[in-house]
Amino acid sequence: MADGDFGNAKSMSIIVTKGSLDWAYPPFILGTTAAAMDLDVTMFFTFYGLPLLNKKLDLKMTTLGNPAMKMPMAGMHMAMPNIVSALPGVDRGATTMMKNLFKKKGVASIEDLREAAVESDVRMIACQMTLDLFEMDRKDMIDGIELGGAATYIDVATKSDINLFI
Amino acid sequence: MADQTLNAEGLNCPLPIIKAKKALKGMEAGKVLEIRSTDPGSVADFAAFCDQTGNELLSSNTEGNIYLFEIKKS
Hints:
The structure holds two protein chains of two kinds.
Chain A: E1 11-16, H1 25-36, E2 40-45, E3 70-73, E4 76-79, H2 82-85, H3 90-104, H4 110-119, E5 123-127, H5 128-133, E6 146-148, H6 150-158, E7 162-165
Parallel strand pairs in A: 1-2, 1-7, 2-5, 5-6
Antiparallel strand pairs in A: 3-4
Helix pairs in contact in A: 1-4
Chain B: E1 4-8, H1 15-25, E2 32-37, H2 42-53, E3 56-63, E4 66-72
Parallel strand pairs in B: 1-2
Antiparallel strand pairs in B: 2-4, 3-4
């Protein structure tokens, strides 16, 4: 498939701007599912979403400033007060707890979903400006991605049936 | 009778769909894939998947906690 040439298939683009463990899920779930449903999918990774293209993923999350995050615990649902979230080690604990929860509930890891995206020919574009800004290295990233900027994304978006910003 | 069976028990969204797609990819047109899932969301999702991809949803049944689907590859 030539760049931007989607033929007759339906298509979807996603701008991926967040790279925490929890926020990495929506774009990869939607991207892989759309690809499974025969859509041509393009994902544009920018700002904090760009590290999701690194070969080695070390995703973390924080409960800080997230009153909607209520974890199932001992039969109840518990939200974390900000003053507790800010303590050393709490983020690490929350990350471990979330990863265990994913495993227990049969939810794929981000590594697995990303692999599924690569296998199903999802086009992945790394934002060149973010790469420069955060002094990241293309060599640390997975194979099969492209580099591009805002114009590259806009070109894709004008030809896509669905455009999402996550 | 299904030509191939996919056990997606214990898997959550979107894995049953992604694994089903993978299985269908390796099958010839007209062959039937049976899928066993424990994800209640897969009932709506396999209907949507078939609607979008043109594969035919021959059946969608529940047996206890198991959701059973038969999809004919287009």
